[in-house]
Every structure is written in C-alpha cells, then in structure tokens.
Amino acid sequence: MTTVLIVDDQALQRMGFSMLMEQHPDMTVVGEAANGSEAVRATAELRPDVVLMDVRMPGMDGIEATRRIVGSGGRSRILVLTTFNLDEYAYEALRAGASGFLLKDAQPEELVAGVRAVAAGDAVISPGLTRKLIDAFSDRLPGHSPQQQRRLADLTDRERQVLTAVATGWTNGEIAERLHLAESTVKSHLNRILTKIDARDRVQAVIFAYDTGLVRPT
Fold first, then answer.
1. pTM of the model
2. CA proximity to 215, closest of 150, 148, 160
3. pLDDT of residue 85
4. Do residues 170 and 178 touch, judged by C-beta distance below 8 A?
5. pLDDT in tens, 181-215
6. Which of 1, 21, 84, 144 is the residue whose CA sits 20 to 30 A from 106?
7. Cα–Cα dist 30/47, whole Å
8. Average pLDDT score, the chain
C-alpha cells in the first residue's frame, strides 16, 4: 500500500487528487495540507511514502517545504506539480531534493503512475529534461563543496563514466551499448554511485554531476 499526503492550497484540487488516489486499491491518502508549513508537520507525523506537492502556495511554498522534508532525513519522497517543463519552480524543486515533477495538466493515469514510480524509488523526470533545466538555469549553479568533491573522488573511473553518461541523458540501455557493458552491470554501477554520492535517485545524481563540475552546462 502506497501512502500519499496531498499538498495544495486549493481545497477542490486536494479533493480531486484524493478521489483519484482512492480509486486505486494500492493507494491510500493519509492526509492533506494547505501550505508548506502544514506539509512539513504532516509529513513528520504521518510519514507518507509520497508527498504530492504543489509549489505555488501562500506562506511557505512547496520548494521550501520540500527542502525541509528532504533535509529531515525521512523516508518520504516528493513529487512536485508545476505548470511548465522548463520552469524556475521545477528547477528549484529538483535542487531542493524532489524526486521529480509532473505538469498540472497531466492525465490522471500519468499522475497515478508518477506516484507509484516515486514510491518505488524511481525519478519522475528524464535525465535529458533534467539537463535542459540545469542548462536553462546554469547561472545559479553553486560552487563545489568539499564534501561533494570527496564523494566524487570515491568513485572509480568506470563509475565516473557511468555517472557522466547518466548526466548526459543516456538511458541504461544506451550506456550499456556505448560502454560495452551488460545492462545489469550498468544498474549495479548506478546503485553503487547513488550510495557513494548519497543521492536518492538518478535525477539527484545528475544534479551532483553538475555541482561537482564532472559535467558542465552546454
């Protein structure tokens, strides 16, 4: 059973999302929140698998709420709803630690599939689109932190190759073909990379690759 917390400042939106989730026997809505502050408190109390997070809300917005929830070290993952693909809010949400985003006009089945994917530990945004976002807002990239550089130094040469390929937007199949590896080997490398760099998913791995200068904006 996937537990979901719905965060939106509009009651009708929350009701609609809740009705959609409850139509599926493998999902249950454990709570709702109308702003970021409520979302942080409810996540700490209810510990949902997935927080479906709007970004534009009065008071504490969804980006700051995402940052605080992820920073708490809990198990809840964040799926952000935004308006445009190449959107400042989408970029900031990913940097805050969201596991992906969907457009607000996504089809119901896309939203349900996105919640399931995030609950399973996957990212709901392609690395290619992540790269486009980072390129679009590359003037905001932070400096390299010593901790990140130490984590980068822990990677083997092959792991750096795989991380670079992921950050370039290649799929596991494309990495396997171009680096002459089995796809299962690519997955093993990626799992080790995520552990070493302390990243939740491949989207956060892409951000790490840019932050450390392993890959540079085009």
1. 0.79
2. 160
3. 64
4. yes
5. 999 999 999 999 999 998 888 888 888 888 888 88
6. 1
7. 9
8. 88
